[in-house]
């Protein structure tokens, strides 16, 4: 959401503000109390190879948001999540899977997140309208950049409590009864997200290989996901 508000095409706002948020928190003092320098621990991701890795590899961050979202919204069960996590091992600082089945399951789940969910017409519409509302509120100084560090409910409350009719008019268009559909020929809104692909590393016969080398299903899923991501989503508003 915030990346669209600030027109951040790289979708990297959270990464860009990470250091300042940490610096201005209680974390540096807590770590210093026990003899640690927060900059050495938190500001160099290259040290923590399980935490962050470039796509299409697995990493803790990518696994976390995928499983958390997909479980929260009912796309996967807790049993499935546990089965996946039990299959994960670390090899030479990499997060690696042991079974082709789990690699296929996570690939399918990841694309449910970044393609089916992120690019769902209703979600595209909601993100667009809320981003427009937030942009307008920023422009009118109803909210400020620091307000995006608040909890979601607190930020929305600021918009609801303001007296600006234009902001209220836009915000009123964000509700669950909106009717939208995908229509590439007759559309009101087009959005193209960052291309996100996954190819889980697989431990096979004593070495780590991309799972797409072993699984044709994974290769095909990634081809379809790439095509959808590059094409973007065309949304037709039927009623709001």
TrEMBL record:
<dbReference type="GO" id="GO:0016787">
    <property type="term" value="F:hydrolase activity"/>
</dbReference>
<keyword id="KW-0378">Hydrolase</keyword>
<protein>
    <submittedName>
        <fullName>Metal-dependent phosphohydrolase</fullName>
    </submittedName>
</protein>
